Amino acid sequence: MPSLGADMEAGTLVEWQIKPGQRVKRGDVVAVVETQKGAVEIEIWDDGIVNELLVEPGTKVPVGEVLAHLRIEGETPPPAVAAAPAAAPPREAPKPPVPPPQVAHAARFKVSPVARRRAEQLGVDLSLVTPSGPEGVISLADVERAAQVKPAAAARPAAAEKLAAMRQAIAAAMSKSKREIPHYYLGTTIDVSRATSWLEQENAKRPVTQRVLFAAVLLKAVAVALKEVPELNGFWVDGAFKPAQAVHLGVGVGLRGGGLVAPAIRDADSKSVLDTMQALSDLVTRARGGALRSSELSDATVTVTNLGEQGVETVYGVIYPPQVALVGFGKVVERPWVENGGLYVRRLIQATLCADHRASVGHRGALFLSALDRMLQEPEKI
Amino acid sequence: MTHDDIRSAFLDTLASVAPEADFDALKPDRPLRDQLDIDSFDFLNVILRVHEKLGVDIPEADYPKLATLSGALDYLEARLTSGRIH
Question: Is the distance from CB of A375 to CB of A225 less than 8 angstroms?
Fold first, then answer.
């Protein structure tokens, strides 16, 4: 069970998308897991052949526990060493050895295939069903009885429960952040008149399906500016800063009803603005409607939050650990602006940086905001 | 296409981004954004779906005209009857 963030302790396997004997390659989706951040598609990190699935759908599994055995190409079955699918990201500390599969199995329930299908149809959570058979096997009758007794016990939590779980996850991560990270905050006003005009002209030339939101321009500018101040992009792990090689930009996405997730746009510094927009659109759509992928929830090297939509002008953020910086944008506003002795009406945005003082100093943070300003003055070059 | 057809098609597009909203309670002259808690992404999706369903390609410069329900319906009716259909 991969860790999808510092705050995750366990996930519930919803379904397998692989079978024993199946060939898989790195990046394939192998399972769907229900987490506090919603349903997540778990990707595998190695090429190989599925040897054995160790966990039944419906089981809640702690982070670090083996879900399945994978045979790496060239190995002979049974493997000497088990490889977990979608192992925790490389930055995670090595997990303690897991108990042998038969021990782990003993704690779980057994269920007949016909009962499992019926449970899915009826929305019955198998972990809540009491088996009546002699060997503790859940039968069709057990499932149907459970469905009558507990019509509300759905296999997937209701929206309100999901939101409460997400609230807990946010609480854990943000409390850890405020407890451990010595934040410092910097802010600056950036004239985005040129950037917004440029985008309006670009969008006027494009069909509705190719239009770009200003948020995508801001994201791209952040990703490029971060290359100049690498100590803002990476993780604080085990008492030291570990810079990230790539810029995977976490984007705060508000969910209806008050949820929040921050999935990553991978390699945001090397994407065009249009590609950034498409990646953003895809992420937001899946965060709100479908499933995010495990790598998207665990890969972000820095986070950007844009609260301008709600009308605020300045964001004072909270860093998402173990990241070391968060960039905030407020609303684009028209304001009087003095430049070279002349008074103009310009479109302005407040950009803020909150950063971990263990990993960077204010002077370097200031250089980042200055680089961001510079990028936004030449939008056509971003 | 009648006024009611346009209204029903437009409400369908709104329902795709704000499925839990009570559309009977929508005040026609107040911003949709505030009433439905939609952001620029949701709004762009509405514009995309209007394009799919009604064949109207709305230029970005016209977005403000769709800020309220009555504004949006007036705008779409005008576009659909003026022959400027893509």
Answer: yes
